Amino acid sequence: MLQLLHIENIAVIERADISFRAGFNALTGETGAGKSIVIDSLGAVLGARTSRDLIRTGAAKAFVSAEFDGVDASLPVLAALGVEPEDGVLLLQRDIYADGKNICRANGRPITVAQLRALGTSLLNIHGQHEGTQLLDEEQHGAYLDRFARLDGLPEAYTERYQAARETRRQIEALEMDEAEKARRVDTLRHQIAELERAELRDGEEEELLARRELLRNAEKFMDAFAAADYALSGGDDGLGAASQLKNAENALHSVRALGARFSELCERLESLYSDVYDLAETVRDLRSEMDFSPQELDAVESRADQLYRLKKKYGATVGEMLDYLERSKKELDEIEYADDRIVQLQGTLAKQEKEMLAAARTLSDARKAAAKVLEERILRELRELDMNKVRFSIDFTEHEPDATGIDTVRFLMSANAGEDLKPIHKIASGGELARIMLALKNVLAEQDHVMTMVFDEVDTGVSGRAAQRVAEKMAKLSRRRQVLCVTHLPQLAAMADTHFSVEKGEENGRTFTRVVELDRAQRCAELARLTGGAAATETQLRGAEELLSAADAFRSAL
Questions:
Q1: Which stretch of DSSP H or E encloses residue 224?
Q2: pLDDT tens digits for 365-386?
Q3: Is there a contact between 463 and 436 (Cβ–Cβ < 8 Å)?
Q4: What is the mean pLDDT of residues 264-274?
Q5: For residues 407 and 364, what is the distance between their CA atoms, to the nearest angstrom?
Q6: pLDDT tens for residues 82-126?
Q7: How far apart are alpha carbons 139 and 444 in whole angstroms?
Q8: Global model pTM greater than 0.85
């Protein structure tokens, strides 16, 4: 459960520490005091999208941290992030900077905002002020049902077959072009294939060509260099090159080599040196003879390089890419020329795929319909507990052409009063009814999600009187299985809480600030009296508040 929420520089909250307890926690306060800012802060530390406007005026950054205890170390998201709770405690932190940068951590380990969001959704569920209006969007109804249904891989199995059939249809559509378009494309491909084949491209040719061109462009310089080196090593007709001079030195010392090891070693060094220089001279002479340059060859190399340049502008940045383009063009030409045969083949494949897809869609639809019956019963049970005894609730299915989600159009229908027909929710539900239906749905879905903490931001919108009491009792029952946090304006809900916080706005040194205070029994009576009758509470209202608290105590004790 959520144990501690720490807030710094969020809107009008300069600094606040809120120690939540197990069970039902209520937050009350004047309109505009900052109750929803507490919820926004909680959303921020759980990875919700935030705005830089959330940062308190004059502050460089905002900071929020949330400490959870009793965290299940086996949660898959924890293993995926490499985060381990310490004795069941998990600390989430988020720094929000004015330049849009965010720094998030889980038990000190850096994580991304997306990872923080994935972790947060497994720990806590926030029901916002306007979330009930999502029930008016019928496109969301199927998603709600699927969350409840736990379909065990059936959507994935259907999606795989749907995507396979979709790809085959795409291939057929690509082959089904009109005759004029087909003729134009065939002419284009044949021209391009012929041009590339005439070029007789060879992978690696361009590099060799550029190296040879560089050599040819500097032919005179190469010739002069090798001629000079050849003369220095081999000499001219007079034989005065380095090799012949070393040979003369070797011959001169040959007569004294037997006079001692010292002279013998010197002669051997001369022999080795002469051998190396002689080999080097032969190499230079061979290379010089190979330097057979001609203006015609340079012209041919330049022409080939220009041809490759022009081809690259049309078919690819390298010879390798042009060869790949050639292969693709040949393949496309074959597909077009044999398109009719290929279409027949693909149509056979598509027929088989569509049969498999429809079978998977039926299986998925049957599972959804079975789950819908259970969900209807669970929602109706919850609604009866929320003082909606005469309401009827049904989940309607209409079949449509297969799409990415299946073949089902799912709609939630209801009848609020006896004798009325079932109709779409958006046509008949009032604000209070929407709030209670959404509360019922959230309560049922929470049983599937296994979240530790549920947060309700003004779930009492449009609810009053006996219905408000039923909502309060529902919250109390829910809080016996999960931690509940609720922002409310209703005294019935606030009285039912195990722990009651007041969100209060003030002014200090010319700046507005908000603080969150846990209330004792006397303070709770005063706050309930304010919720009932306004700022100036009378003795009668205070007694009524005490009676409300006593009745709530009795109800909770009986749970």
A1: helix 219-234
A2: 999 999 999 999 988 888 888 8
A3: yes
A4: 84
A5: 9
A6: 888 988 999 999 999 988 899 999 999 999 999 999 898 888 888
A7: 19
A8: no
Instruction: Print burial letters for 94-114: b (CB count within 10 Å at least 16), e (below 16).
Output: bbbeeeeeeebbbbeeebebe
Q: How many angstroms separate the CA atoms of 557 and 137, rounded?
A: 39
Element (H, E) at 467: helix 465-478
pLDDT score at 291? 65
Residue with tokens 């999606």: 159
- Three-state DSSP class for residue 12: coil
Kindly compute the dihedral angle of the four CA atoms of residues 58, 63, 64, 65, in this order, to the nearest 10 degrees: -150
**Residue (of 82, 6, 1) closest to 38 by Cα position:** 6
Cα separation, 112 vs 317, in Å, equals: 38
Rounded to whole angstroms, how far apart are CA atoms 140 and 405?
12
- pLDDT over 90 (residue 239): no
By three-state DSSP, how is residue 429 classified?
coil
Kindly report the CA angle at 187 between 183 and 190, in degrees rounded to 5?
135
- pLDDT band with cut points at 50, 70 and 90 for residue 5: very high
| CB burial string 446-456: b at 16+ within 10 A, e below | beeeebbbbbb
Query: And the tokens for 73?
Result: 């170390």
Structure tokens at 239: 């034989």
Residues 116 and 74: beta-carbon distance below 8 Å: no
The token pair that represents 447 in the structure block? 């049983």
